[in-house]
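During the second half of the funding period, the structural biology subgroup turned its attention to how the target accommodates small molecules. The most pressing case was coproporphyrinogen III, which had performed well in the primary screen but for which no bound structure existed. We therefore specified the complex as follows and requested a full 3D prediction, including the ligand pose.
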Amino acid sequence: MGTKPLIEVLNGHRQEVPPIWLMRQAGRYLPEYRAVREKAGGFLDLCLNPELAAEVTLQPVRRFGIDATILFSDILVVPLALGRKVEFQLGEGPKLEPLADGAALASLREVADQNVLRPIYETVSRVKAALDDRTALIGFCGGPWTVATYMVAGEATSDQAPARLFAYREPDNFQKLIDRLVETSVGYLVGQLKAGADCVQIFDTWVGVLGPDQFRHWCIAPTRKIVAGVREQMPGAKIVGFPRGAGMMALPYVEDTGVNAIGLDWTIDRQFAREQLQSRVPVQGNVDPLALLAGGAALDCEVDAVLQAFGGGPFIFNLGHGILPDTPIAHVERMLKKVRHRRA
Ligand code: CP3
């Protein structure tokens, strides 16, 4: 088997040209994605259709020759597998039946419904079979805190107040919810790794609202359990953590969770990240998605700053969060060219 640059980096080996992939690289900014999305019906229908989900997973590889592709699915298939209603209304984002208090926990399934997760494993196998031996396939799940914020509120919120209130008012019940998500996520990630994912990423998008003690409790501790649980069944499994907005808590996150690498958002101080984080684990990131949307000098400047900060060590080039739907494809091409042709 050939070596995959992304996996080389996760093993701690700097690559002359950093491997590149982009969060949300399959999505509405691509006309070929919009075409399949229309054919599929709803967004969840697309996630649960192995043929079409594999097709959109592969689109960025075909168009950009990107170094890694991420399974096309969503973090909210986990609540779906736990028996919650989940819907995506066009232009509105996700809607779930809110989990208002501890009493509602009784309605959660004890174990995930494999009828929901099986098609996703099949997508992984199909993509794996279609990839060459240098392109990595990334599986993923949401961080338990982030998934819980959607389950509790029933929708995206600006400050995740419903989940934070639940955690203050009923810490024991909130812990039960987190534990259920930890167990389910372990099984879900192991299923993806067995189906052929080369590594997995844990997306904890909404941990930036947590104070330090809560961050340890609701982000670091559950993530550590997921990492240990996955490695118990799949020794040596490669796991990337993305605690968006962690700020200085990124250091204890790296020290205490056991992740192989950390994904950085664009708000982190890059000198801190290089000295304190990249000295411990490979880093991934962290171009501001709005700089990519803007393009031109702002984009060039941002790309240079990212390469300057992290190019000297084990590094995966990426955005600091998902690509925005209005992003011009030409800007993505310009960025890729710049990274690939940089002087060492
Ligand atoms: O290319 C990829 O990154 C792979 C697929 C992927 C999606 N969602 C597809 C998607 C991944 C890895 C996710 C993760 C995800 N989903 C996260 C964590 C990462 C992040 O972006 O913060 C979160 C918080 C979700 C929940 C979610 N899914 C929201 C809030 C929304 C609505 C907002 C939006 O962009 O529309 C989604 C929908 C979603 N997930 C889309 C895609 C391509 C857009 C749906 C569409 O095509 O209409």
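Two results from this model are relevant to the next phase. Strands lie at 68-70, 86-89, 93-96, 136-142, 199-204, 239-243, 261-263, 283-287, 315-319. The chain has one domain: 5-340.
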